[in-house]
Amino acid sequence: MILSLLIFLPLAGALLVGLAPRDKGAKAFAFGLALCVFFLSLSLLKGFDPADGGFQFKELRDLVPSVGIHYSLGLDGLSLWLVILTAFLTPLVVLSSWNQGSERPRGFLACLLLLESSVMGTLLSTDLFLFYVFWELMLIPAFFLVGLWGSAGRTRATLKFVLYTMAGSLLMLVALLYVVRETGSFDYTLAREHLYPEDAQVWCFLAFAAAFLIKVPLFPLHGWLPDAYAEAPTGGTVFFSALLVKLGAYGLLRFCVPLFPYAAQETAPLLLGLAVAGILHGALMASIATDVKRLLAYSSLSHMGLVVLGIFTFTLTGLQGSLFQMLSHGVAMAGLFFLAGYLEERSGKRGLSDLGGAAKSAPLLAVCFLWMMLSVVGLPGFSGFIGELLVLSAVWKASPALAGAALLGFVLSAWYLFNLFGRLFLGPAKGGAWKDLTWREGLAVLPLMVLVLWMGLKPNPILRPMEKTLTLKVLEELKPPPVMTDFAATHRRLTEEIEKDKRNRGKK
User: In Å, how far are 20, 195, 348, 461, 489 from 483, measured between CA atoms?
Assistant: First the structure.
């Protein structure tokens, strides 16, 4: 029951923290529980078989068997590292948010744990009903994190986030119900093995993709992102950038491409173009941003475009690069948002015109920021370089023009991030002396610094477990079935043969 424990331990912790009569000890309890979940997730590595591309650690129980709803969980190479990333980041978020949510600390911590539980459920569900429940459940704690503990513009940010997310989720629900009607069950395996008509594939693909691409988010569906990232508390921003947006890319790999391969290949040129447009748009907007968190938000938009770009190359190199980039981006951006949050706590400001010269009084903070920034810009030896190299090499084989445009976006990212570092930490000091990292803040950032370096130097242990799953569940689905290679062409050929046979009979 290890998968159930990963889902329901944080949920139980959220209930206990939220219903506790006193605030005292709530933070220590939440941190200890999140740490236990992380160590539990590491045990998955011991029993996971990289040679098995199917679901492992499976759990199956009847919920409503009359309509085909089951409590069905499973883990494969596609979800393994995302589950571990979720469990790894949650205790660090609790630790870095120690001084946040002071007005209602128990509610703040309960929302963080509930968000971890819903992310785990989304990644581990192999029943479509269960997946949709957890997908929608994520909206509740995210709504409260921004709406109650956000900064001045939290009302506008919350409204935009909810409207965007609900619009995509309703479209996905319609397509999901069609899939269930066709298969007669909510079982994901049956849905993946079913052959859908080509026109239905296109509509279902678009409906599912709308929900997932809003979550990524892909240009031009990113309207909620700058406000949500900027106005959310640091812990909420880290969950958004490091975990929630990754679920959008996960949904593309888990549902859109395997269930609707014909539609995925038909729409791939459009999505590749939008991905490159998102890379350039995010880079250009970050270049002119004057708010630290908004700049990092647009940087996140730009780098998530690379993830979508790799997915729709339909090559193993591109898919592995996308997954690796998701993990690297999650770790590196978490570190940058942690450090940006520390700066905001010290100064009460986020505008670049109000900040500067922090390296003189806070050298440790400056070194940590530079370290995480080097991973984001893709310096060789850091994790960001591996993901970018794999994806761009796959895109280059498909279209050198797209690869060149994407590369231009990352050249811009190096420019605006180094400019950000210079304005924050170098030059004349603004705002007086800065307090350097405390031991608790350093403890939250240090594991991230170690991880981006280890991933950059030792990528194979991460790439190997995902290879078999991506080959069997994504790439194999893109091959046309042996009987119905082209239904329309087969239909025309058979019709011509029948007409020819009739003419021959008439002559006789």
Answer: 61, 11, 65, 38, 12
Cα 345 from Cα 362, distance rounded (Å): 14
Distance CA 244, CA 144 (A): 15
Omega into 220 within 30° of 0, i.e. cis? yes
Q: What is the pLDDT of residues 406-424, one digit of tens each?
A: 889 888 988 999 988 888 8
Q: Is 342 within 8 Å of 437 (Cβ atoms)?
A: yes
pLDDT band of residue 487 (cuts 50, 70, 90) is: low
DSSP states of 135-149: HHHTHHHHHHHHHHH
The CA–CA distances, whole Å, from 3 to 13, 83, 120 equal 16, 10, 9
Contact in structure between 296 and 337 (CB atoms under 8 Å): yes
* The predicted structure's pLDDT at residue 205: 92
C-alpha 345 chain-centroid distance: 27
CA dist., res. 487 & res. 28, Å (int) = 61
pLDDT at 219 > cutoff 80: yes
Confidence of residue 176 (pLDDT cuts 50, 70, 90): very high
The DSSP secondary-structure symbol of 187 reads B
Closest CA to 286 of 296, 277, 276: 296
Convert 49-65 to b/e letters by CB count within 10 Å (16 or more is b): eeeebebbbebeeeeee
| Rg of the chain, C-alpha, whole Å | 24
Whole-angstrom Cα distance, residue 87 to residue 83? 6
Secondary structure letter of residue 70 according to DSSP: E
Residue 385 exposure: Cα atoms within 13 Å on the Cβ side? 14
pLDDT tens, residue by residue, 381-394: 898 899 888 999 88
> Alpha-carbon distance 379 to 366, whole Å?
18
C-alpha 334/C-alpha 238 separation (Å) is 5
Per residue in 318-373, pLDDT (tens digit) is 899 999 999 999 899 999 998 888 888 777 666 667 777 777 888 888 899 999 99
Residue 72 pairs in a beta bridge with: 60
Inter-CA distances, 191 with 27, 254, 268, 338, 474, Å? 42, 11, 22, 40, 14
Other C-beta atoms within 10 Å of 505: how many?
8
Q: Give which of 79, 76, 66 is closest to 129, Cα–Cα.
A: 66
Is residue 486 within 8 Å of residue 480, measured between CB atoms?
Answer: yes
* pLDDT of 48 above 90: no
Specify the DSSP class assigned to residue 231.
H
Sign of the alpha-carbon dihedral angle for 195, 196, 199, 205: negative
CA-based end-to-end distance of the chain:
72
Q: Of residues 437 and 10, which shows the higher confidence score? A: 10
Give the length of the chain: 508
Can you tell me the distance from the alpha carbon of 11 to that of 335, in angstroms, rounded to the nearest whole number? 25
